[in-house]
């Protein structure tokens, strides 16, 4: 069975404005696992990740994160232990912040630096994390002035500020060119191979963005689970052809996946 779950969803459903976005999702992520969530547009991928990050309450079902149950815990405190990155969240960051401030404000899951007092140790940790992700020279640069690839590496550094128990990434390659995408895939592959890093969940539309060393996939279709389990059993021509409603051929080479229309 492996380690205890860091994330567990039981019968999770979400209905918004009369539309069913998620329907009865059962899903467990353990500490040593690295998951990718796949599915067509509208399958419910981002909604599920927002629920896991405690930014959205489900309409039904149970959500447990790091041993705490949504609805029975202070989500503001628990969010400090969940590393969450998404284009929507990045857009809400105070634009005047420097790269160092973007990382440092993760200490309190804050979007601006004004509401908390930060210690010298916290500032030093933010700078050290920027260095770890090859962004040390960017520490004093305003976040919006960075390239898309640089911003994404700063956000990866931000995710580690609190030594989180689980990391959730929603389409981190959005807006990146090929070079930036490949650099990020390599960074995430290095994360996946590092046993000291927390469990990771990556939402993407594109199979070529699945980093090598990822272990599992959850495939959604119409808000329901189509398949869930080890990559070799779930990232297949039959399953993904069903998910996307197209005849697809899925190939794997040295841990990288591609999809082609048959």
Number of strands: 12
Q: At the fourth CATH level, what is the homologous superfamily of the largest domain?
A: P-loop containing nucleotide triphosphate hydrolases
- Strand neighbour order, sheet with most strands: 6-7-8-3-9-10
Query: Structural class of the secondary elements?
Result: alpha/beta
Q: What share of the residues does DSSP label as strand, in percent?
A: 25-35%
Write the CATH fold name of the largest domain. Answer: Rossmann fold
Write down the overall mean pLDDT. 93
Question: Which CATH architecture of the largest domain is right?
Answer: 3-Layer(aba) Sandwich
Describe it for me?
The chain has 262 residues and is α/β, with parallel strands linked by helices. It folds into two domains: 1-81 and 166-262, Rossmann fold; 87-163, no CATH class. The chain is 30% helix and 29% strand. It contains nine helices and twelve strands. The strands form three sheets. A six-stranded mixed beta sheet has the order 6-7-8-3-9-10, sandwiched between helices. The protein has a four-stranded antiparallel beta sheet with strand order 2-1-4-5, with helices on one face. Strands 11-12 form a two-stranded antiparallel ribbon. A hairpin with a 2-residue loop joins strand 11 (248-253) and strand 12. Helix 5 packs across helix 6 (148-159) and helix 6 runs parallel beside helix 7 (178-193). The protein is globular.
């Amino acid at each position: 069975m492996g380690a205890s779950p860091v994330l567990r969803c039981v019968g999770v459903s979400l209905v918004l404005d009369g539309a069913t976005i998620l329907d009865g999702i059962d899903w467990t992520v353990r500490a040593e696992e690295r998951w990718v969530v796949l599915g067509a547009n509208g399958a419910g991928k981002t909604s599920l990740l927002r629920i896991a990050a405690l930014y959205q309450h489900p309409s039904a079902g149970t959500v447990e994160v790091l041993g705490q149950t949504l609805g029975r815990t202070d989500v503001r405190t628990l969010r400090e232990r969940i590393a969450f990155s998404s284009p929507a969240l990045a857009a809400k960051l105070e634009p005047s912040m420097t790269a160092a401030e973007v990382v440092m404000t993760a200490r309190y899951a804050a979007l601006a630096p004004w509401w908390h007092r930060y210690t010298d140790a916290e500032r030093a940790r933010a700078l050290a994390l920027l260095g770890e992700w090859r962004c040390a020279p960017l520490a004093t640069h305003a976040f919006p002035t960075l390239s898309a690839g640089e911003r994404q590496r700063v956000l990866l550094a931000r995710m580690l500020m609190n030594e989180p128990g689980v990391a959730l990434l929603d389409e981190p390659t959005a807006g990146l060119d090929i070079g930036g995408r490949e650099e990020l895939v390599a960074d995430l592959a290095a994360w996946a191979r590092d046993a000291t890093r927390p469990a990771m969940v990556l939402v993407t539309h594109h199979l070529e963005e699945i980093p090598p060393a990822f272990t599992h996939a959850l495939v959604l279709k119409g808000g329901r689970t189509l398949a869930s389990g080890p990559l070799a059993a779930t990232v297949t021509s039959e399953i993904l052809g069903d998910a996307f409603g197209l005849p697809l051929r899925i190939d794997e080479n040295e841990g990288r996946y591609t999809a082609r229309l048959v």
